[in-house]
Design goal:
mainly alpha; 10 helices; globular
């Protein structure tokens, strides 16, 4: 999938999963979803040309180089007898559920240890990354949600209790990215290190007729527009407003 589709599916997944994470207030849900959208781009740090790799210049570029090196070494050490001959960089280490869970746990623990400013830094990074790809569709909503949280909760103090759901948002974004890549022609080895059919890095993907090519017509004209609609409909209060509007129109006639 292209970066904007990854971010958009991350936003939709965040809106849908927020109640499961115990979030009910509008500002919390918007921040959670926007963070999920931003971190849905993170697995592509294993590609030097990806948005996440170029986002902060030498900083994210350096992280990308370290991740590619780590993925290459891990692939060489763990590939099964039927795994393909490749570098093991793109769509390997960072495109696994294991990576998503570890990064989510590291985020929760790291922000708890680092305090409010670290929490704010992670949130702002996720929001800016989502805004960079999707623009006002998500960026303004996420920023408004964060401002609402801080105003209603007494400033930075409101960030003291978000570490757990912040880790969930990061992990969820990465998993959604993996699932998105799994429905493309290349598939995604997100069940590593399970050995499947002689492969440690077995590419999970649907039947051939359900796959599509990244960035081509099906993704840009069908998949992305569908999720644009969901991105609006899933926002808290929108469905209720639409229901009331439909009822008003019905009784007016």
């Amino acid at each position: 999938m292209m970066g904007r589709t990854h971010a958009l599916t991350g936003w939709c997944a965040g809106l849908a999963a927020a109640p499961l994470a115990g979030l009910a207030g509008g500002p919390q849900v918007l921040v959670f979803a926007a963070t999920t959208a931003g971190f849905a781009l993170l697995p592509d740090l294993d590609h030097p040309g990806a948005t996440a790799s170029r986002f902060l210049g030498p900083v994210t570029g350096g992280i990308s180089r370290v991740l590619r090196w780590s993925s290459r070494r891990l692939y060489a050490m763990t590939k099964g007898p039927r795994d393909e001959h490749c570098s093991g960089e793109h769509r390997h280490l960072s495109h696994t559920v294991l990576f998503a869970l570890l990064l989510g746990a590291l985020t929760a623990v790291g922000t708890a240890a680092g305090g409010r400013w670290v929490v704010l830094g992670v949130l702002v990074f996720g929001l800016l990354l989502a805004d960079h790809v999707l623009g006002d569709l998500v960026g303004v909503a996420g920023a408004a949600g964060l401002a609402g949280l801080m105003v209603n909760g007494g400033g930075l103090e409101t960030l003291d209790g978000v570490q757990v759901w912040l880790g969930i948002a990061v992990a969820l974004g990465c998993v959604v990215h993996d699932l998105g890549d799994a429905v493309t022609e290349s598939g995604c080895p997100f069940l590593f290190p399970l050995l499947i059919a002689g492969e440690t890095w077995y590419e999970i993907r649907p039947p051939r007729w359900l796959r599509f090519r990244t960035g081509k017509t099906f993704e840009s004209r069908i998949v992305f527009p569908v999720f644009v609609v969901l991105a609006v409909v899933l926002v808290p209060g929108v469905m209720e407003a639409m229901r009331h509007l439909a009822l008003d129109e019905l009784f007016a006639t």
